[in-house]
Write a structure and sequence with these properties.
Blueprint lengths: L1 H19 L1 E10 L9 E4 L2 E7 L5 E8 L1 E8 L6 E7 L3 E7 L14 E2 L6 E5 H7 L41 H4 L1 E5 L2 E2 L40 E7 L13 E7 L4 E10 L2 E12 L2 E15 L2 E21 L2 E19 L11 E19 L6 E24 L13 E5 L5 E10 L1 E16 L1 E16 L3 E3 L23 E16 L2 E14 L13 E11 L3 E3 L2 E16 L3 H4 L4 E10 L8 E9 L9 E14 L2 E30 L20 E29 L8 E16 L3 E4 L15 E4 L6 E16 L4 E17 L8 E3 L5 E3 L24 E4 L2 E12 L3 E13 L3 E3 L2 E3 L10 E9 L1
Parallel strand pairs: 1-7, 10-13
Antiparallel strand pairs: 1-4, 2-3, 2-5, 5-6, 8-9, 9-12, 10-11, 12-13, 14-15, 14-48, 15-16, 16-17, 17-18, 18-19, 19-20, 20-22, 20-23, 21-32, 22-25, 23-24, 24-26, 26-27, 27-28, 28-30, 29-30, 30-33, 31-32, 33-34, 34-35, 35-36, 36-39, 37-38, 38-41, 39-40, 40-43, 40-44, 41-42, 44-45, 45-48, 46-47
Length: 922
């Protein structure tokens, strides 16, 4: 009986014992210098369900394999794939080394490359940047789908606008403000972005125009590219690790490890660049340092308007082997300085004293500690602690000639109410000094775990804290001699503005579901944040904002097409991205308006008298909310033995973007009658009580920030990259995009009647109207294609590329806005519906805007084709000489539209732009 039970037991359970005998393959992948390579793709030939990546130390693990013989393929960008045969009858550990002799020219890209990551992003390598020869980070955006080469514009702030028709950012800047920049894990965005010249009348048309990034975000002019090893620009739904954004993420990784002395000298039509860098390996302690200097002129014929940049960086990394763990300490010290400088040619300008200087400096120090588990199968994978400190300085020093009309008075009262004011000098030179010193302190703790529950889960979680404060003295000028004749503020010390702190937490699970020959890759995450030190008056104080995000990618079974192996996947995602208001929006300057009540300008200066009423308004919007963008996308990727095609559709919707709105307020004051005092009878300075007066009121407008901007985006992005054609080593790359962006205002708009309209009783600004659709919005559309043929000839040390950039069409349309208001308020604050009778009233009819309907036409520019040429020659592996010519050939014909001829031939934007550079390695 027992024997029979034993036989049955063995018969049924031996297969399970056999199945239980499973083994693991572990190992490390390194380069020729012995440095671990991350993100190496490892798969098993003939088994599509196995696909792993090496971690940051180059380690990998393939678990639960049955006994047998396997062929492992190791593939990495820039190297030929390595096939390693493994006979598995026990756990094995192997080591793979990618040598420099194994460079795969088919993996050398001089264009942007669509990533295989779960988020839609573009990878830009050092090879691509060196071939592009950029002057600043702005030039790199040419390599994105929908990107196009543009001449550098270094005299104004360069903001980033992802997935937007080029040149149509308009005043809707939430998109650029909501793009997060990270360099080696250190954030560049700051919530302490304060407009240092707000309220001083230095807007459009002044020296200060376009030079303040407070509403734009990161100024890409400040980022040099010579020390960058790779850039990933996430255009889709990013990991929940990244927050305080609405548009995308820019991840910059700089060079680490040994590098010979490298000198770069570049010159083009606008700028000159010199950079120097070096990397040292001191017994395992990697040190890199570099510096660059740029000098740019907006116009080579004008030496008085320039932009200069001076950057320096020191980076170090040390790794310790601690039994089952590996500890990595990374640290960096960065110094950035830019100077916008403008003065006037004394031979051509009457304002010989005018000058403008804006010096922006930044010192940042970062420390990161990471601990990694050596055993790839360990539940705990890694943990990191990052502490970053960023101290900035924005100094403005400006002299400006100011001219007033006769009888102008000072605007410098700090107290509300009616008071005597002094007459101001008609002509003088005003001086403005601004001291802005933002400080950012960031702490981020993050952990990674590998959990095996039904399927394998890669879990990431962390806490992120950001503290920002401005400790500058703010605006400093003599109130008697303001920098312009239109001043609506008073000097304010920035250190009196409350600090901001943002506390965030995130959790993300990435897992793979094998389904026969299918593999379903998923990433599900949740991020939450709160602003922790706001006054309870603010509606967002104490609130927690949650951002769910999901990305999925279904890897389809491999198939043969025309005898070649085709790999494919389809992907999609949905996510919410939220951007908190900056200090500039939450704590605006008080608004000061000085209403003139009396200007008694006697021929005898001792008898003159002026009286004004100062009105102080607080434009703080306590109901201001964060901007939230909802984004989804679908796409597919095909890889036919190195011929790669990627196409995706995206859709974004945000109706809470930041914008300014008008706030009319009826202000009462006295209007003294000048004629009531006869100047011929005066023997002394008159008193204010000597004048007759009448009480009256008028509407004054203050602007404040609100959430009224609506932005809708949709588009199709595509990219095809061929294998390099053998013999000529040439790759063809086709990329481009169709973009459609709509901007509009969601809120009714209030407009006070023009001061040029005077009532019968000699009063102004007695009404303001509400327009349901009041502010101009826009519809912008473009479709472009870039075709690049690049030849890489390593034996000759030559790299050539020819790019045809075709903008098939570029269209913009002003959205309709109401000519007539829906209603209006009189000076008593009583609301009236605007009627047909009001259109005949001599005063109220002025609310009819009578906008020319011509501006609502859809203006569409036809094809604009440009040819760019780039060449690089390497001499004895030490010297690289490069040159480029953009717009070498241009086809942009003139065209007729709505009865008008539009001339594009020989325009400035079609003039060839060229430059060259030399790189020397010692």
């Amino acid at each position: 009986m027992l024997r029979n039970i034993y036989i049955v037991f063995v018969f049924f359970f031996i297969p399970y014992f056999a199945l239980a005998q499973q083994f693991d393959i572990r190992g490390t992948v390194k380069d020729s210098k012995g440095v671990g390579l991350s993100n190496v793709n490892i798969d098993i030939l003939g088994n599509a369900s196995v696909h792993v990546l090496t971690d940051e130390q180059g380690q990998f693990s393939i678990n639960d394999l049955q006994a047998g013989v396997y062929q492992l393929r190791f593939s990495h960008v820039g190297f030929k794939s390595i096939i390693r045969k493994v006979s598995l009858d026990q756990d094995q550990e192997i080591q793979v080394i990618f040598s420099q002799q194994g460079i795969n020219i088919d993996e050398v890209y001089v264009t942007g490359r669509e990533s295989r990551n779960i988020s839609t992003s573009t990878i830009i390598t050092k090879d691509a940047m060196q071939h592009l020869q950029p002057s600043s980070f702005t030039d790199i955006l040419e390599l994105l789908p929908g990107g196009r080469s543009i001449d550098p514009q270094l005299s104004t702030v360069n903001g980033i606008n992802l997935r937007t028709p080029q040149g149509h950012a308009s005043s809707y800047t939430t998109g650029s403000l909501g793009t997060q920049f990270s360099i080696d894990g250190m954030l560049l965005n700051s919530q302490s972005m304060i407009d240092p010249t707000a309220g001083l009348g230095l807007g459009a048309g002044t020296e200060n125009s376009g030079r303040i990034p407070s509403a734009i975000g990161v100024d890409m002019r400040t980022i040099n590219t010579d020390n960058i090893s790779s850039v990933e620009i996430i255009r889709g739904i990013p990991s929940v690790e990244y927050g305080n954004l609405t548009s995308g993420v820019v991840l910059v990784e700089r060079t680490k490890g040994y590098e010979p002395w490298s000198l770069r000298i570049k010159a083009d039509g606008f700028s000159k660049i010199v950079s120097l860098g070096k990397g040292i390996d001191l017994r395992g302690y990697k040190v890199n340092f570099d510096a660059d200097y740029l000098d740019s002129k907006a116009d080579v014929t004008n030496i008085y308007n320039s932009f200069r940049r001076l950057n320096g960086s020191f980076r170090g990394e040390k790794v310790w082997d601690l039994a089952p763990y590996r500890l990595t300490w990374g640290h960096q010290l960065n110094v950035r300085s830019t100077i916008d400088n403008e003065r006037f040619d004394p031979d051509n300008d009457l304002s010989k004293t005018d000058r403008y200087k804006n010096a922006v400096r930044n010192i940042s120090f970062g420390n990161t500690l990471k601990i990694h588990a050596k055993k790839p199968q360990a539940i705990f994978r890694s943990a990191s602690l990052a502490i970053n400190l960023n101290a900035g300085s924005n100094q403005i020093n400006m002299d400006r000639f100011v001219s007033y009309g006769t009888g102008s008075v000072e605007q410098n009262s700090m107290v509300a109410g009616s008071h005597e004011v002094a007459f101001i000098q008609n002509n003088y030179v005003g001086n403005l000094q601004v001291d802005s010193r933002p400080i950012d302190f960031n702490v981020k703790v993050m952990g990674n775990w590998l959990l095996d529950f039904l399927v394998k889960h890669q879990v990431k979680s962390g806490i992120d804290y950001l503290y920002t404060k401005n400790i500058g003295d703010g605006q400093r000028y003599d109130p008697k001699y303001p920098i312009s004749s239109i001043v609506s503020t008073r000097p304010r010390a920035f250190h009196t503005i409350p600090a901001m702190s943002n506390l965030s937490a995130f959790l993300e699970d990435r897992f793979f579901i094998p389904m026969n020959n299918f593999r379903f890759e998923n990433s599900v995450g949740l991020r939450a944040f709160t602003l922790t030190n706001l006054d309870p008056k603010y509606a967002i104080a104490g609130k927690i904002y949650v951002e769910p995000r999901y990305n999925g990618r279904l890897h389809l079974p491999q198939m043969n097409v025309f005898g070649k192996k085709l790999k494919s996947n389809v992907f999609g995602g949905y996510g919410v991205q939220t951007l908190a208001p900056t200090q500039n929006y939450l704590y605006p300057n008080l608004n000061y308006r000085d209403i003139s009540e009396l200007i008694y300008f006697h021929n005898n200066p001792d008898y003159r008298l002026a009286w004004a009423n100062t009105v102080i308004t607080d434009p703080t919007n306590f109901n201001l909310n964060p901007a939230r963008n909802r984004k989804w996308e679908l796409g597919a990727q095909l890889d036919l033995e190195g011929n790669f095609l990627s196409i995706n559709y995206f859709n974004e919707f945000m109706n809470s973007g930041f914008r300014s709105e008008n706030m009319p307020n009826a202000e009462s004051y006295r209007k003294y009658i000048v004629e009531s005092v006869d100047p011929a009878t005066l023997t002394a300075k008159p008193s204010i009580t000597d004048f007759a007066y009448r009480d009256q009121a008028e509407y004054l407008t203050t602007t404040r920030m609100t959430n009224g901007s609506r932005t809708e985006k949709q588009g199709i992005e595509y990219q095809f990259s061929s294998k390099r054609i053998s013999g000529i080593n040439t790759r063809f790359t086709v990329n481009g995009a169709w973009f459609l962006t709509k901007h509009r205002n969601e809120m009714p708009v209030a407009e006070v009647m023009s001061a040029n309209v005077i009532t019968e009783d000699n009063k102004v600004r007695q009404y303001y109207a509400l327009y349901a659709n009041g502010n101009t919005g826009g519809r912008y559309e473009s479709f472009n294609t870039n075709l690049t043929a690049d030849s890489f000839l390593p034996k000759l040390g030559l790299n050539l590329s020819l790019t045809l950039q075709s903008m098939w069409f570029d269209a913009d349309k002003t959205l309709y806005r109401d000519n007539l208001p829906i209603g209006y308020y009189d000076i008593e604050g009583i609301y009236h519906v605007y009627t047909a009778a009001d259109q005949q009233d001599p005063i109220l009819r002025n609310f009819d805007r009578k906008i020319d309907p011509y501006i609502y036409n859809n203006f569409r520019e036809p094809i604009d084709l440009r040819v760019n040429l780039k060449a690089t020659k390497v001499i004895k592996e030490r010297i690289r000489v490069s040159m480029f010519v953009n717009k070498l050939f241009v086809y942009a014909p003139n065209y007729y539209q709505y009865g008008n001829l539009f001339l594009r031939e020989n325009s400035a934007q079609h003039t060839p732009y060229f430059g060259m550079e030399v790189n020397i390695k010692i």
